[in-house]
Amino acid sequence: DIQMTQSPSSLPASLGDRVTVTCRTSQSISTYLNWYQQKPGKAPKLLIYDATSLQSGVPSRFSGSGSGTDFTLTISSLQPEDFATYYCQQSFSTPWTFGQGTRVEIK
Amino acid sequence: QVQLQESGPGLVRPSQTLSLTCTVSGGSVSSGPYYWSWIRQPAGKGLEWIGRVYTSGGSNNNPSLKSRVTMSVDTSRNQFSLNMSSVTAADTAVYFCARESSEVYTIDHWGQGILVSVSS
């Protein structure tokens, strides 16, 4: 299985901050990397697919980059509704695997 | 807009079989290009992909669950199902059903999730 390592696990931040979450994979996955946002008690929501493509309806302050084994999710200016947990997921080979999550919390 | 809804017992006894159904509305389980998936999340923990079932009836499971998992599709009811045998407390989790695009391999629609507890 492809192992996913996200960092940091917790990220205190303030409104308006630029926030970056990192995801590293145990082997090269080209750009087969997706990002999800999950709020407490809710299902995850797809934000970014194919490492850099913004899912329809997702605000443009979210962006993704990377290829191979190193990927980042960036929120350009943190909004109140962005405090949540973010997961990366590889879609290079089954079983699909997820990172352990990064909780973006209020500083 | 497609919607998915999980249903099934919230409590399962150890060693018994967990059975969940996902009802799809606003779309058809027969239409492509989609797979129909199950993902679970223990309380306070991360996400684990259980597997997916195809409209043809074939499936692709997570080897970590060995042969405990079977999945099926019922096109007449627009539903798909998960059965997990020989459950233990480690299988206690919120179970999500979801739709996966077979073109870009993204999980683009999720059910709200159902909590299943394994306890005697």
Spell out the blueprint of helices and strands.
The complex is a heterodimer of chains A (107) and B (120).
Chain A: E1 4-7, E2 10-13, E3 19-25, E4 33-38, E5 45-49, E6 53-54, E7 62-67, E8 70-75, E9 85-90, E10 97-98, E11 102-106
Parallel strand pairs in A: 2-11
Antiparallel strand pairs in A: 1-3, 3-8, 4-5, 4-9, 5-6, 7-8, 9-10, 9-11
Chain B: E1 3-7, E2 11-12, E3 18-25, E4 34-41, E5 48-53, E6 59-61, E7 69-74, E8 79-84, E9 93-101, E10 107-110, E11 114-118
Parallel strand pairs in B: 2-11
Antiparallel strand pairs in B: 1-3, 3-8, 4-5, 4-9, 5-6, 7-8, 9-10, 9-11
What does this structure look like?
The complex is a heterodimer of chains A (107) and B (120). Chain A has strands spanning 4-7, 10-13, 19-25, 33-38, 45-49, 53-54, 62-67, 70-75, 85-90, 97-98, 102-106. With 107 residues, chain A is an all-beta fold. With 120 residues, chain B is mainly β. Chain B has strands at residues 3-7, 11-12, 18-25, 34-41, 48-53, 59-61, 69-74, 79-84, 93-101, 107-110, 114-118. In chain B, strands 2, 4, 5, 6, 9, 10 and 11 form a seven-stranded mixed beta sheet that branches. In chain B, strands 1-3-8-7 form a four-stranded antiparallel beta sheet, with no helix packed on it. In chain B, strand 4 (34-41) and strand 5 (48-53) form a beta hairpin. Chain B starts with a strand and ends with a strand. The interface between A and B is medium-sized, with 24 and 21 residues.
